[in-house]
Amino acid sequence: MAIRNIRTDGNPVLREVCKEVPEVTDSIRRVLDDMLETMYDKNGVGLAAPQIGIPKRMAVIDDREGHIFKLVNPVITESAGEQISDEGCLSVPGYAGKCKRPMFVKVKALNENGEEISFEASGYLAVICCHEFDHLDGILYKDKAVEFGRTDK
Asked: Which of 13, 21, 49, 54 is deepest in the core (most CB within 10 A)?
C-alpha cells in the first residue's frame, strides 16, 4: 500500500465525470487499498478516486463508527429526508461549509471482490456517501454549500 498525493481544488480531474470500472482486478484492489491508507493518513472519513488523480468511479469510506467500505461504481438508488451537514474536504483544505443532504440513502455498488452489495446509510454515513459520490460526478461540496468559508483565518 502507498500514500497517494491528494489533488486540490483547481485540478481539472476533480471536475471530471468519472468512468465506470469495467472489472474489479488486482490493480483496482491496490488502488482501493492506497485510497484507504491515504484517507487515514490525512485523517479523513472518505476519499474518492479523482482526489488521487484517477477519474474512475471508486470511493472508500470509514465513518469511524464501524462502517468501512471500499466501493466500485457506487450509486444511490434511494434517498429520503433532509439534513444540514457540516462538511470539509481533503481536496478543499482550509475551508468548511454546510450542505443540504438526504437523511437516508440506499447504496448499490461492487465491493473489492467484485461482488454486488447494497446497504442503507443514515445521518453522518449518508452525508459521507453523498459527498464522496458527488466527487465521482465532478462536484465539490462547496458547489452545494449553503454556507462556506475559511477555517484558517
From this structure: 49
